Amino acid sequence: xxxTDANGWAxxxxxxxxxxxxxxxxxxxxxxxxxxxxxxxxxxxxxxVSEFIYRSHPNYSHRPNRDTTNATDNVIGGxxxxxxxxxxxxxxxxNKYLQAVKTIGIRTTPTTCSA
Length: 115
Prior knowledge:
By secondary structure, the protein is α+β, with helices and mostly antiparallel strands. It has helices at residues 47-56, 80-83; strands at residues 26-33, 36-44, 89-93, 97-101.
């Protein structure tokens, strides 16, 4: 569990996730306001990022090739327009660290739809 700062940002240091058959690399998350669960979802990495890490990092390069891409994942799979909202924005820092960022907006008051 990670609490946000006064500006609503949460920061994590983690290892890059592995994968398992029929699922692409992803991270699960639940957003709560107080004790109320607002949304539970999964966020993903661009295939090119995963391919680079799995091919070049010694902790992963010995594993067999993954069998699933974002397009073929059994949960999010499909056209890029379907997957794109759930992708992290990534950048390599000092040619050593991967920074992955996702901004998520949460309404704290209900909205109504006009007919």
